[in-house]
Write a structure and sequence with these properties.
Layout lengths: L1 H8 L4 E2 L2 E2 L1 H30 L4 H30 L1 H22 L16 H32 L6 H31 L1 E2 L5 E2 L1 H21 L13 H18 L21 H17 L3 H7 L5 H6 L5 E2 L2 E2 L8 H23 L6 H29 L8 E8 L5 E5 L6 E3 L8 E4 L2 E8 L2 E8 L4 E9 L4 E8 L10 E7 L6 E4 L2 E2 L12 E3 L6 E6 L2 E6 L8 E10 L2 E10 L10 H24 L6 H25 L5 H24 L6 H32 L1
Parallel strand pairs: 7-13, 15-21
Antiparallel strand pairs: 1-2, 3-4, 5-6, 7-10, 8-9, 8-11, 11-12, 13-14, 15-18, 16-17, 16-19, 19-20, 21-22
Length: about 700
């Protein structure tokens, strides 16, 4: 990279053997990848929390979008090679891309349709329509320029600059990972900010707006370098030629299907009437590799769930890393960080060690190991999910109801339920866990001190209630509170409410949130607070103010705080836990990310290298298209499997994916066992030799003919 900086300081178009135009292309790629991965990092949470979709729909739309991003490169390559040329294709599709990112940013502005200013959009369909338009434009843009940018960079070098060209590709891949790493760290931080005109919300417009701005910068940088680029004219697309040749072979074979025609060695040989021998030989090599690609999509089906299922898994975990607070979508950064570390380690340490052990670690074996590791990563994810499920609270079904008892008095209280249920004794200032009942009428007898009272309640299905009991001087005071919470708070937030156990009305503030005035023995509604922090509780009663710091709340919990005493600046409160916080730490996701990254290093890097080594150089575009197609199909597999499997448990879905990949891995291992490696250069050399001999033969025949003619 020092060569790069030097080449910029020299103001000629080329310096130290590098074309200056390369600098613009690398900056362009960095900004574009930052834009794409930044937007993709927060996408699934935007679907879930802003558009209010459930986990399954969010996952489905996310994978549909990723699949589209990997289908459009084929379109981009065709446009560039057959019509516009690479430069014009990159510019025009980057404009589409920038518009898409801007539309996405606008779609996430809360105040766009929030007429009543309550903090949530009133017209969700408008936001959905805008974000779908944005995503389609982004998929067209990012996919369309994907095959062009690296090839356009390669075009800038002369034939004698092979060394510089290969170093350019290394720097190019580094810029991709740097862009993806930085954006996956930065955009979740932007998303976690509070912003808005009328009400403060999670800042999605900023999280999508910064990638949009970087895409615009990327476009400007690319156009600024325009005068220095070497622009190769479109040569026609090899994929079109390949498709025509295959089509002709099939048609011709079908025409000559009767026994009268002699069989040919390979079905592609039926194209020899129209296409030359060299093209047919090259296509045979390509088809051999593409046949091996058939099982590969299953790997991508698992790999791309980092941005969907694994991010949703992180939302139910504890992200407190001491001094720093990790957002669920930031866990995805583990992948690019590990990639930057692992690629050199694997190349410099692991592969040489395997070689020393006299193991022939062929490319196809590496790919098989990659698939096996990815399925292992999903087993790890399933184990983490099982631990998370153990900590999730049980909520009542439509036929059930739950009751929790809080004793606000100084005496112990005993509650007797009808239907021979065990009586429950609650100590002073303590509470029970939620108890499950069938939804119906319920009669209770409450005894505290020397007093007894009876209570009747009708329990509607699917609800939770809190029964507050207090033994006064004259009677047992009873208060029923409806706990309007039937799911764990999202995004690691906490729900807090208060019960006033003082004889006078109180005004309560916690942090900068004010609660409604509370009468004696009444409860407030729950309010949302960010996770992982403590706040100051301030109570004003009878013109006396007292305050105390609350306990440190975790993530995803709900608490009832009882105000017991307020005297001369001293506030006495008790905390009662309604929903336990997330206790499984996000660090437990690191093993699954580590295994999956190891899988990616041996699978992805090897896959492309192997493809290029097994096919002639002019067919690289066809193989790249095939490779990207496997990613697209992989994302479609997620849609099919997640849609078809009616598994209610998330861990079971992880195990299902792991099992499917393991099965595919075994099939691939068998296919790889029967594969014979070829050297395209040898095949080309043989064809050259045959052509030379053919020309020589024709020459001899012609000379003999001429001799015979002259003798006559």
């Amino acid at each position: 990279s020092s060569d790069l900086t030097l080449s910029v300081s020299c103001l000629q178009p080329s310096c130290f053997g590098y074309p200056l135009s390369i600098f613009f292309i690398i900056i362009n790629e960095f900004c574009e990848r930052f834009s794409y991965y930044g937007m993709r990092a927060v996408l699934v949470l935007y679907f879930k929390y802003f558009l209010q979709w459930d986990d399954n729909l969010s996952t489905a739309i996310y994978h549909t979008f990723v699949a589209l991003c990997y289908l459009t490169p084929i379109l981009g390559a065709l446009i560039a090679d057959s019509w516009l040329g690479k430069f014009k294709t990159i510019v025009s599709l980057s404009i589409v891309y920038t518009i898409g990112q801007a539309v996405m940013s606008v779609s996430s502005i809360n105040d766009l349709t929030d007429q009543n200013r309550d903090g949530s959009p009133d017209n969700i369909p408008v936001h959905i329509a805008l974000s779908m338009i944005g995503l389609i434009l982004i998929a067209l843009g990012t996919g369309g320029i994907k095959p062009c940018v690296s090839a356009f960079g390669g075009d800038q070098f002369d034939d004698d600059q092979e060394k510089q060209r290969s170093r350019f590709f290394s720097i190019f891949y580094l810029s991709i990972n740097a862009g993806s790493l930085l954006s996956t760290i930065i955009t979740p931080i932007l998303r976690a900010q509070e912003c808005g005109i009328h009400s403060k919300q999670r800042c999605y417009p900023l999280a999508f707006g910064v990638p949009a701005a970087l895409m615009a910068i990327s476009l400007v940088v690319f156009i600024v370098g325009s005068g220095m680029y070497k622009k190769v004219q479109p040569q026609g697309n090899i994929m079109v030629q390949v498709s025509k040749c295959i089509g002709f072979a099939i048609k011709n074979r079908f025409r000559h299907r009767s026994k009268a025609f002699p069989k040919r060695e390979h079905w592609l040989d039926w194209a020899s009437e129209k296409y030359d021998k060299r093209l047919i030989a090259q296509i045979k090599m390509v088809l051999k590799v593409l046949f091996l690609y058939i099982p590969l999509p299953m790997f991508w089906a698992l790999f791309d769930q980092q941005g969907s299922r694994w991010t949703l898994q992180a939302t139910t975990m504890d992200g407190n890393f001491g001094a720093i607070q990790i957002q669920p979508d930031q866990m995805q950064t583990v992948n690019p960080i590990l990639i930057i570390i692992m690629v050199p380690v694997v190349d410099a340490v692991v592969y040489p060690l395997i070689k020393k052990c006299k193991i022939n670690f062929t490319p196809l074996r590496k790919i098989t190991v990659g698939m096996f590791l990815a399925s292992l990563a999903f087993v790890a994810a399933a184990l983490v999910q099982v631990q998370i499920d153990k900590t999730l609270p049980v909520f009542p079904t439509a036929q059930q109801s739950q009751i929790k008892v809080i004793n606000l008095g100084t005496d112990n209280a005993t509650i007797n339920f009808e239907r021979e249920l065990q009586p429950v004794t609650v100590m002073s200032m303590k509470s029970t866990d939620y108890m499950m009942f069938e939804a119906s009428k319920l009669q209770l007898t409450i005894t505290s001190g020397n007093k007894t009272t009876d209570e009747f309640i009708t329990l509607p299905g699917g609800t939770r209630h809190t029964l507050a009991v207090k033994n006064n001087e004259t009677e047992i005071a009873v208060k029923w509170l409806l706990d309007n919470v039937t799911s764990k708070p999202e995004e690691g937030n906490n729900l807090i409410r208060f019960i006033n156990n003082l004889p006078d009305p109180v005004n309560i503030t916690m942090g900068d949130v004010s609660f409604e005035p509370l009468w004696p023995l009444s409860g407030s509604d729950y309010k949302l607070f960010p996770g992982g922090r403590e706040d100051r509780i301030t109570v004003i009663t009878n013109s006396m103010t007292c305050s105390v710091i609350s306990k440190a709340f975790g993530f995803g919990s709900a608490y009832t705080i009882v105000i017991n005493e307020c005297s001369e600046d001293r506030l006495n409160v008790t905390h009662s836990e309604d929903i336990p916080p997330n206790t499984v730490h996000m660090a437990w996701q690191i093993p699954q990310y580590f295994i999956l990254t190891c899988a990616e290093v041996v699978f992805s890097v090897t896959g492309l290298e192997f493809s290029y080594s097994q096919a002639p150089s002019n067919m690289k575009a066809v193989l790249q298209a095939g490779w990207l197609l496997t990613v697209a199909v992989g994302n479609i597999i997620v849609l099919i499997v997640a849609g078809a499997s009616k598994l209610s448990e998330q861990w079971a879905e992880y195990v299902l994916f792991a099992a499917l990949l393991l099965a595919v891995c075994i099939i691939f291992a068998v296919m790889a066992y029967f594969y014979t490696y070829v050297d395209p250069n040898e095949v080309e050399a043989r064809l050259d030799e045959e052509e030379k001999n053919k020309v020589k033969k024709e020459q001899d025949v012609y000379e003999k003919q001429a001799e015979a003619d002259s003798q006559m």
